[in-house]
Amino acid sequence: MTEDRVSEDAKQGRRPWYAIGFADVVIVFFTLCILQNAGTRMMDDPGLGWNLRIADLMWENHGFLYREQFCSPTEGRPWVTQAWLGDILLRLAYGWGGLNGIAVFSSLCIALTLRFLYTRMTRDGIPWHAAAFWTFLAALGTSPSWVARPNLFTFPALVLVVDLCERFHRGAIPARKTLWLLPIFVLWPNLHGGFLAGILALGVTYLVECATAVLAFDSVARLEARRRLRWWTGLGVALFAATLVNPYGFGLHLWNLRMIRDPFIQTQSTAEWLPPNFLDQGWFRIEMLVLLFPTLGVLSRQRISSLALALTVVFLHFGLTSSRYSPLWVVVAVPTLASLATRIPWLESLAAKLSARLSPELRAGLEVRPERRSPYLVSFAFAGLMLFASPWMGHLAHHNQELMPSQALDRLLANYQGERIFHGANWGGYLTWHGWGLHPRLKTWIDDRLDVHGPEHTKDYRSLLAAPPNWEERFAQDQVDLLCIPAETRLASEARASVRWRVLLDDNQVAIFRRVLPLSVKTVTPGAGSSQ
């Protein structure tokens, strides 16, 4: 009976539940590769610390968060935690394995995205070795986003959404298969605010179906498009309702839309909102894929679907306007690029010549077998084993001192005695993270959540870094007694020259000062008489 069942599975192209497929090799290989990044910059995102403490703050508050509680100057302002569920998952990984747990969890999330891409390409008829090559290019293209933060959850979700939309458009799956979008759009808005990318993909799909229903030359194509359009209309309403299953309802959508349309955030905040600079280290990988898009379109005999073309172009637009979106374009575009590459005439001719020289056994191993699916059991078992073993992986994950000067910040925390601190914005998350257990608990001045702090507080922070003439009066008024600022700023230079501040640390990257004299005490500058 068992042998008959195995034989029947083989005939239908199914692997036994215990079989190891190349897709499992993909997730193992890329997880181990991505983990090599755990000590270079994966742990150094400015927002990692407050993302982790959101879970702790929710536990303390016995519920969801609606007001700012981390930074003292903006405490009480409205706050929408866009990734509370993703924060909890990261916090659980940290609670189990520390930094190693976060690194392993993040690496597995990226590797799962790459497995989804590989599986999609092989299922669509791309040879497994070609799919592996394009999966490798996708890994290179997404590498700028290999940092531990909830943004990582958007990648696998977007791959699944685009895949379902394109397959339904081509008629490769029945309508009921698209119902898998419902659980995706229930979870995604709670995992990360990038669910708007999924809504964008659905919107593009709907517009393409509208255009096909009206403009297609083939009457059958028009009828099929109208049928899909009716289905998408009903399902679209259900999917939008699914996105409202979050602690903030429609307020989550409004918060995210306001953030991505805020000109201050888009142009004067962090570099990730600005257009990509392809001269920066590593960004040539995405530039290469961008240049391949029109090149393959000209050389290939493959006609891609109108939806695949529209999605690739629309996401390319966003990827070129903000480096934050560029890796998202990569996961949308790579299957289309791979499909185009397989139908280039001279490559097909070269492949045929090389295949003729191979042995029958090797030639059979390179054949296209899109119908053979690898179960996820081995991949999930590997993921569980890696997470379980993360506490015993030694000093695998650590901070890059050039990106996150944790040693200097730990020195600040060691000197903290309850004072109010003025510090660099990129260090606020780390101070929230590691100042959590201090007594009294450390309240930061600012962090990278500019959507919470707003332009006024952010501009005031930047003005203080530039040391205006009344900077000491301002800090006295705000009861700031500790400074932890970039060493090259003008404020650091002024604090070094002031007798009211004592240097605790100055290592050419971070300068830490403690107030030793109040503003009311007169000081005497040699040869200059007294001054206030």
Automatic annotation (TrEMBL):
The keyword Transmembrane applies. This is Uncharacterized protein. The chain crosses the membrane at residues 17-38, 94-118, 130-148, 195-217, 229-250, 282-299, 306-322, 328-347, 376-394. Keywords: Membrane, Transmembrane, Transmembrane helix. The keyword 4Fe-4S does not apply.
